[in-house]
Specification:
Creatine Amidinohydrolase; 5-stranded antiparallel β-sheet; globular
């Protein structure tokens, strides 16, 4: 069921957005050569506790997961792009790291993701991250009352196709509110003018993710970590966005 939020409820969602943004920023600053993925998860865990927030991940167990997630943060490295389960891995020079984090504050959820390069960057990785962020901006720009869901998808997909990238449609954006994942599903490619009419009060996570040279994915044995089928690297960007009578509100905007 698709739920619309009142202006008061959207205001009540702002603290969750600010908190998630602060954690994402802290993780991006912490990520460096020699840092263990478990240290990043520990940082996020500590920030959740200090803020009196609630993790959306630790007990999460959808049908595709081999077990409850058990961590509070997704860390996807290099050819991993989504749902990376933190494990005992020390970041190396040149790694492409994507972090995805969702948490609830006072019962309201926000969700955000960011990709960064650890140490020495590769030009192709910088371009991939820039394309993913550009696609996110295009999706947000289309998130206006009166438009259609397909306009958001088209905006994202157009940026990808212009960069010569293929788009996987198995995972994409989603509704956000009292829970992390709700209706509607927001594909990362589509046709303009099609689909659900966007109305004020709809709150969605818009999240493009792309791989260098494929749209095919495989799962790790952990049932969570999603990798490219050909070993190429991936990037991921996400914001929680509220549709209003005017401009969209990016609840997880970072300073």
């Amino acid at each position: 069921m698709i739920e619309l939020r009142t202006p008061t409820q959207i205001d009540q969602m702002r603290p969750a957005g600010r908190f998630v943004a602060s954690v994402i920023s802290a993780l991006a600053e912490k990520a460096d050569v020699g840092v263990n993925l478990l240290e990043l998860d520990e940082l996020a865990h500590r920030m959740i506790k200090d803020a009196g927030a609630e993790s959306c991940y630790i007990d999460y167990h959808p049908s595709f997961g081999a077990s409850p997630f058990g961590k509070v943060l997704c860390t996807s490295v290099n050819d991993a792009v989504l749902h990376g389960l933190p494990f005992d891995y020390v970041l190396q020079d040149g790694d492409l790291l994507s972090v995805d984090f969702a948490a609830a504050v006072d019962g309201w959820v926000s969700d955000s993701a960011l990709s960064v390069i650890v140490g020495t960057p590769r030009e192709e990785d910088q371009q991939l991250i820039a394309t993913t962020e550009k696609a996110l901006a295009a999706g947000i720009a289309a998130a206006r009352a009166g438009n259609r869901l397909g306009d958001i998808s088209f905006g994202i997909g157009s940026v990808a196709h212009e960069a010569g990238l293929k788009v996987n449609l198995q995972f994409g954006g989603h509704g956000v509110g009292r829970t992390m994942h709700g209706e509607p599903h927001v594909p990362n490619d589509g046709r303009p003018g099609r689909g659900l009419k966007l109305r004020p009060g709809l709150v969605i996570a818009i999240e493009p993710w792309f791989l260098h040279s494929t749209d095919e994915i495989v799962f790790d044995p952990d049932g969570w970590t999603i990798r490219s089928a050909d070993g190429s690297r991936g990037a991921h960007a996400e914001h929680t966005v509220a549709i209003t009578d005017g401009d969209p509100i990016v609840l997880t905007a970072r300073d």
